[in-house]
């Protein structure tokens, strides 16, 4: 822990980290390095297996063998796979404090630890950053392991609330179980009504007992599959014997588009939910951060798309994506802490009682885990240090690069911007979807781009054909430089030419060593 609280020491490290943003780190190691990492792992049956090693030899193994076989997602500004985010220097420092102090944030013990109060303060700042209205209205709020965890909480709360209303008499799924509750309430079908939801919603549906097949896609059209068909929604809500959760994608993963066009549709969904006794869950893992953008003309359309989200019953937010904190951080918000507690109460354990009348509940009664990491601290320091303007600038940077690349693709002879080339570029948030016009190139486009190792993208399918998605989600974005490199790579790939980072007009000093352990050393 030596020096972990030494500001002068860390100031230097933070400065190096921020400065490293101007340097080039490759997005992936070479296949040889990755194979070598695999080959270095302990083998059962070998004489050294579990024989123990000195700390130094163990560290050396990690630095020399494992680190070279890891991806550059934390260091490169152009790791655009999935939606991964990055780690702000201060968040990394806070994460080390968390590990060093190893707080078990499960019981609210205000006289013994401030950890639960810090969690609560972070969640209140988040509610304000995302302009979700009065933070006291989101009485059920907690940190989760990520958006999948939050989606599990969302569906679990939906199940509890919707069936609870049908049961009456204070009966609950938490007490009766799903089978008993459905039988008693006369419910024969549970359904999750959605459009182009993230795959984790199906996983959550399986975990909470709806079943994956309960997830019903109500897409408005093939042209705009992310949009929810409100007429179909009403039809499904009316089916006798059903209990429904409406799950809105606020940020579809292929396109970054939104399930609803704006607040009028959101009001309509709220009205339908109230009329038919359904729960509204918004999966805003990354898309809800639109609400952290400034009130400017260029974001007007995006703001419109997420207007009214505060009318939902529960919301998923991801921390380890756009908030740029290390992995193991998501948030869950609901207006109904009683519902959350009804599901997650950890009963009859006197030794875990907080014995406090404090309004902050014990995390173990409002989430999946009992013992749990102090995962709020990195989010707390990011929200505190960046503030509203810092977060707005961070996200704006991602939007700027995404829109510039989208414009390049739209105007390119080689590429087609998806989902709709004629759409307003103001619809672009931080995901860009595209494909090559040449069918043969399109088949291998992801591999060709990733082979350059200076830009990493994920493949997907769009309307039955392969497509490429580029998700810009790290604080390391440097709009001018990254635009230069990305468009150079895309042009080289389209023209069948070998890409060489040295051919980009970057300052030579920006090219760092290609040796991954050294990459880390330079930065850490
Ligand atoms: C990433 C993502 C998830 C899953 O989140 P994890 O943090 O990976 O568990 C769920 N929904 C959306 C919209 C996402 O982008």
TrEMBL record:
It holds the Pfam family Pyridoxal_deC. Its cofactor is pyridoxal 5'-phosphate. Keywords: Lyase, Pyridoxal phosphate. InterPro entries: Aromatic_deC, PyrdxlP-dep_de-COase, PyrdxlP-dep_Trfase, PyrdxlP-dep_Trfase_major, PyrdxlP-dep_Trfase_small, Pyridoxal-P_BS. It comes from the Eukaryota. The keyword Lyase applies. Belongs to the group II decarboxylase family. This is L-2,4-diaminobutyrate decarboxylase.
């Amino acid at each position: 822990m030596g020096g972990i609280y030494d500001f002068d020491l860390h100031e230097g490290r933070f400065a190096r980290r921020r400065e490293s943003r101007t340097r080039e780190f490759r997005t992936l190691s070479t296949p040889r390095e990755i194979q070598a990492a695999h080959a270095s792992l302990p083998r059962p049956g070998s004489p050294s297996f579990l024989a123990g090693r000195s700390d130094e030899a163990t560290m050396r193994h990690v630095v020399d063998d494992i680190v070279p076989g890891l991806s550059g997602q934390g260091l490169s500004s152009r790791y655009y796979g999935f939606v991964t985010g990055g780690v702000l220097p201060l968040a990394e420092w806070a994460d080390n404090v968390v590990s060093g102090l190893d707080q078990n944030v499960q019981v609210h013990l205000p006289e013994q630890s401030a950890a639960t109060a810090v969690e609560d303060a972070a969640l209140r700042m988040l509610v304000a950053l995302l302009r979700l209205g009065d933070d006291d209205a989101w009485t059920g709020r907690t940190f989760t392991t990520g958006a999948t965890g939050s989606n599990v909480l969302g569906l679990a709360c939906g199940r509890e609330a919707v069936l609870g209303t049908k049961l009456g008499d204070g009966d609950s799924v938490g007490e009766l179980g799903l089978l008993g509750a459905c039988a008693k309430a006369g419910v024969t079908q549970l359904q999750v009504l959605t459009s182009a939801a993230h795959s984790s919603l199906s996983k959550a549906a399986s975990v909470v007992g709806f079943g994956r097949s309960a997830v019903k896609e109500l897409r408005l059209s093939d042209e705009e599959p992310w949009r929810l068909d409100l007429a179909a929604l009403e039809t499904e809500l009316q089916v006798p014997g059903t209990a429904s959760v409406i799950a809105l994608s606020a940020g579809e993963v292929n396109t970054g588009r939104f399930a609803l066009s704006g607040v009028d549709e959101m009001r309509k969904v709220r009205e339908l939910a109230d009329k038919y006794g359904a729960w509204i869950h918004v999966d805003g893992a990354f898309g809800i951060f639109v609400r952290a953008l400034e009130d400017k003309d260029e974001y007007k359309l995006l703001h419109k798309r997420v207007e009214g989200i505060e009318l939902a019953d529960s919301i998923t937010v991801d921390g380890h994506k756009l908030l740029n904190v290390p992995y193991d951080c998501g948030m869950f918000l609901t207006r109904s802490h009683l519902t959350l507690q009804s599901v997650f109460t950890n009963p009859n354990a006197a030794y875990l009682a907080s014995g406090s009348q404090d309004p902050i509940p014990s995390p173990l009664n409002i989430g999946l885990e009992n013992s749990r990491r102090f995962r709020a601290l990195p989010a707390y320091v990011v929200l505190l240090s960046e503030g509203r303007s810092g977060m707005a600038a961070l996200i704006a940077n991602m939007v700027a690069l995404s829109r510039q690349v989208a414009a390049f693709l739209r105007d390119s002879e080689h590429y087609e911007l998806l989902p709709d080339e004629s759409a307003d570029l103001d619809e672009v948030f931080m995901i860009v979807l595209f494909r090559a016009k040449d069918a043969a190139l399109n088949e291998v486009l992801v591999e060709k781009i990733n082979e350059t190792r200076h830009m990493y993208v994920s493949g997907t399918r769009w309307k039955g054909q392969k497509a490429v998605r580029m998700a810009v989600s790290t604080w390391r974005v440097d709009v001018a430089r990254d635009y230069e490199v990305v468009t150079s790579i895309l042009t080289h790939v389209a023209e069948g030419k070998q890409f060489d980072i040295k051919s980009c007009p970057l300052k030579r000093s920006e090219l760092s060593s290609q040796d991954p352990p050294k990459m880390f050393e330079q930065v850490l």
